[in-house]
From TrEMBL:
<dbReference type="Pfam" id="PF08362">
    <property type="entry name" value="TetR_C_3"/>
</dbReference>
<dbReference type="InterPro" id="IPR001647">
    <property type="entry name" value="HTH_TetR"/>
</dbReference>
<dbReference type="InterPro" id="IPR013573">
    <property type="entry name" value="Tscrpt_reg_YcdC_C"/>
</dbReference>
<dbReference type="GO" id="GO:0045892">
    <property type="term" value="P:negative regulation of DNA-templated transcription"/>
</dbReference>
<protein>
    <submittedName>
        <fullName>Transcriptional regulator RutR of pyrimidine catabolism (TetR family)</fullName>
    </submittedName>
</protein>
<dbReference type="GO" id="GO:0000976">
    <property type="term" value="F:transcription cis-regulatory region binding"/>
</dbReference>
<keyword id="KW-0238">DNA-binding</keyword>
<dbReference type="GO" id="GO:0003700">
    <property type="term" value="F:DNA-binding transcription factor activity"/>
</dbReference>
<dbReference type="InterPro" id="IPR009057">
    <property type="entry name" value="Homeodomain-like_sf"/>
</dbReference>
<dbReference type="InterPro" id="IPR036271">
    <property type="entry name" value="Tet_transcr_reg_TetR-rel_C_sf"/>
</dbReference>
<feature type="DNA-binding region" description="H-T-H motif">
    <location>
        <begin position="59"/>
        <end position="78"/>
    </location>
</feature>
<dbReference type="Pfam" id="PF00440">
    <property type="entry name" value="TetR_N"/>
</dbReference>
<feature type="compositionally biased region" description="Polar residues">
    <location>
        <begin position="1"/>
        <end position="11"/>
    </location>
</feature>
<dbReference type="InterPro" id="IPR050109">
    <property type="entry name" value="HTH-type_TetR-like_transc_reg"/>
</dbReference>
<feature type="domain" description="HTH tetR-type">
    <location>
        <begin position="36"/>
        <end position="96"/>
    </location>
</feature>
<feature type="region of interest" description="Disordered">
    <location>
        <begin position="1"/>
        <end position="31"/>
    </location>
</feature>
Length: 231
């Protein structure tokens, strides 16, 4: 009888909560929060699985297992593997580019560059799978995100390069190739994710320790400042 009473008071919401039970009167806000939580779990799991196996090698079953959610939930939220893959890549690119908001005409050049490099390094340390996944996509010829690179990325790089050009014109930054500046920063920061194993092997130390990360960040910052002619 108790079990029957419980089943009347609660209802399963597998399609929106990964098998979690919600009160029958759960409001839309609660459902929305659970959906957001589940989507975040799925995206993080997909990021890791795609980074390891690539788009072709990864399966929805592997991602579901990594997310500890039913495979049906992945299809409910994202439809198919390609849509999930594109969503992951789009999120990575967004997270990479968001720190560029600090590149504004009225910003202090050194402070803006310092903050951007630190955030890029933090991203490489904390989400290495994201960087590796994106690198693998590029090495394959960017079949899934080529249009995104030619549109959103190109537009934003041109916009932020123009900010650097403005700083140069005002004498606040020494002359440099402002577009290739971004390529240099990306290569210096993302190598700590893409080649983490190599770095750890050469250093012979825990490359994930706070001390090792601080050392690497100082080196990259100093290198970028020299590249920009900033002391």
């Amino acid at each position: 009888m108790a079990a029957n009473t419980m089943s009347m008071q609660m209802r399963s919401t597998d399609d929106a909560s990964g098998g979690r039970l919600l009160p029958a009167g759960a409001d839309e806000g609660e459902k929305g929060r659970i959906r957001q939580d589940n989507e975040a779990v799925i995206l993080l799991a997909a990021e890791r699985v795609f980074a390891r196996f690539g788009f072709r090698g990864a399966t929805m079953a592997q991602i579901a297992e990594a997310a500890a959610l039913p495979k049906a939930n992945l299809h409910y939220y994202f439809g198919n593997k390609q849509t999930l893959y594109l969503t992951v890549l789009d999120g990575i690119l967004h997270d990479w580019l968001a720190p560029l908001d600090g590149f504004r005409p009225d910003a202090d050049p050194k402070s803006a560059i310092d903050a951007y490099v630190r955030q890029k390094m933090r991203f490489s340390f904390e989400r290495p799978h994201a960087s590796r996944l994106f690198a693998n996509e590029i090495l394959q010829g960017a079949p899934m995100v080529h249009h995104l690179l030619q549109t959103e990325l190109r537009r934003l790089v041109a916009e932020k390069a123009a900010v650097l050009d403005g700083w140069i014109a005002q004498g606040r930054l020494p002359p440099l190739d402002t577009t290739h500046f971004f390529f240099s920063v990306w290569s210096m920061t993302q190598t700590y994710a893409d080649f983490d194993i190599q770095i750890a092997a050469v250093l012979g130390e825990d490359s994930h320790s706070e001390q090792a990360r601080a050392r690497a960040t100082r080196h990259v910052l100093n290198s970028v400042f020299r590249l920009c002619g900033l002391s």
